[in-house]
């Protein structure tokens, strides 16, 4: 499924810019060029857990949604969304969410602090990352060994150990993001290989050692609590890939579609990640439920690149220097789009 197939465009290697989407014929304004698949991994932030439908991401101006699954803590906009979520998630998946919900609740009741962020915290390099994950693997192995192969439920010992794992800095949003990806991996291992492992990966995806710590602890926590049948997908490799793809392939899930005021979470949509950025894009996007729709906003000639904007809201109004600075910081590239080249030159000429 990845790269996306279409008779309107093809994915090509662009000198100096990785891969990009090139129109394979003239496309007229307003033509839809891509409907993405649902996210392969996503998170709805915990502060929105009562307000956003776990299936279709509907947000009703902050109202608490009525349909609630008390075992998993998920809410839905309707009974049919709940039903679809169940079908999509499967019985094992639901059980995994249930175990996680239980652990997070236990944790918040125990009132343990997740540990402050040190001011001297830094972005861990690849060696730090390797070393920390190796330690997490050892810890997870311990937990997995003590669990009975026949029982899917967590026994008392397992629960105690899991509590130990969550006592340190574990973030419910990180652990939820990882679980969603682990379930996807478990259900669709082939598509995982084709769609996720071929995405651009960030070498050093953890912004701080605190962040790295939280990812590793989340993995250990999941290893200790997840139904045994899912453990084959709860691996260091899967969790590291999920972090590595999130920084450069995730799309924000916002309340009003693209530029809504509420930033409710984010998701990884492989087919949509092939669009490069332009500060004057010819493709617009909108979230429709849990998928994205992309269409051209002007007539496009065969051979032209189809680009979206990675800038959100007010960021579009930044001047060229600020825009380039922001894109370099967040996305790791120096924008050389036509608009930046023209405005960059103009600002140089003007002194
Ligand atoms: Zn819904
Ligand atoms: Zn630009």
UniProtKB/TrEMBL annotation:
Q: Where is the composition biased (Basic and acidic residues)?
A: 137-148
Instruction: Say which domain of life the source belongs to.
Output: Eukaryota
In terms of SMART domains, this protein maps to: SET
Query: Which InterPro entries does the entry link to?
Result: H3K4_H4K5_MeTrfase (IPR050869), SET_dom (IPR001214), SET_dom_sf (IPR046341)
Q: Name one GO cellular component term.
A: nucleus
Q: One Pfam family for this entry, by name?
A: SET
Q: Where is this region: Disordered?
A: 137-166
Query: Start and end of every SET domain?
Result: 7-311
Q: What is this protein called?
A: Histone-lysine N-methyltransferase set-6
